Amino acid sequence: MVAVSCLLCGCAEKQQETFTRSVVLTEPVRLGTESVKSFSGIVQEAHEISLGFKTPGQIERIAVKEGDYVRQGQLIARLDDADYKLGVEAAQIQYDQMKNEVARMKKLYDEKSLSGNDYEKAVAGLQQLKVQLQTNQNKLDYTRLYAPVDGYVQSVNFEPAEMVDAGTPIVNLLDVKRMEVEVDIPASLFVQRDRFTGFFCQSAFTGGEELPMKLISITPKADGNQLYRMRLVFDGADDKRLTAGMNVEIGIRIAGSENAGFFTLPLHTLFREKENTYVWVLGNDTTVVRREVTVDGTDASGNAVITSGLNGDERVIKAGVNALQENEKVRVIEEPAETNVGGLI
């Protein structure tokens, strides 16, 4: 009898060791911490400039062609300025004549031989001619069209010898002095715009480096797809590896919400008993204890939102919760690191 009892006890201990359950752990994720949302954007030039003469005339020369890179102050085109030069010459002759006449009248005025009214009229006439001379000089200067900024010539709309009016776009210039990124965000993110804390840009052409950006504007009206247009610029010098038309990924950092004391857990960590919801928490002695929690729906990722019962430092059983018993000893299976896929090393 003694031998049989010992044998049964030995088998029971062996069976108990055989059925020690293996579990995988997870940890509560605190709500209210900063999150990042990513969207696809397009790099664009800051704006497109339509360049035209400020005076009408006949085009004499176009100094650029489509695709050329021009620098600020570089000559773009010029008009035939023969008539404008004649206008300046005629105004100069009248001004010089009137200037000499006013000089003679001043001597008479100083000698009290000329009334003050006549002298003032002469001075006013000289000033008027000076304005006319400057106006004609400006028109002559306007026959030269220069690049206002650095950029690329997108299109040339006229040929030499054609007549153009003042303001007619001769050349379209892409301003690449400052690059922008346009991205469309959904309404669910637009309503959180007051909690945006930062922005960054990533691209395969920059090796995944996070390039900081600054917000310029968000269009307050949604388009037909309920998307809001957001414009950003690079915080600092533009990255020369990015050019207009490239697709990039824009990251938006969002501050935590008012649910700062709440946590999330996967739904399969929960189980119910008698109308109450519980999770299994692992103790320091590798035994599990039941912990009652309060659940308030799910988040956008489908995880349960825990409003009470957790303090954030628990180790929660991730799978097999329905097979565990109170104070049951378990064996923890460590999940392989992200750099050790499949646990091969």
How many strands appear in the DSSP assignment?
Answer: 22
Largest sheet: 6 strands, antiparallel
How much is the average pLDDT?
86
Into which percentage range does the β-strand content fall?
Answer: 35-45%
Overall outline: elongated
What strand order characterises the main sheet? 3-16-20-19-18-17
Task: Write structural notes for this entry.
With 345 residues, this protein is α+β, with helices and mostly antiparallel strands. Helices cover 22% and strands 37% of the residues. The chain has 4 helices and 22 strands. It has a 6-stranded antiparallel beta sheet with strand order 3-16-20-19-18-17, with no helix packed on it. Strands 4-11-14-13-12-15 form a 6-stranded antiparallel beta barrel. Strand 18 and strand 19 form a beta hairpin. Helix 2 runs antiparallel to helix 3. The longest helix is centred in the N-terminal third of the chain and has 29 residues, at 82-110. It is elongated, with a radius of gyration of 40 Å.
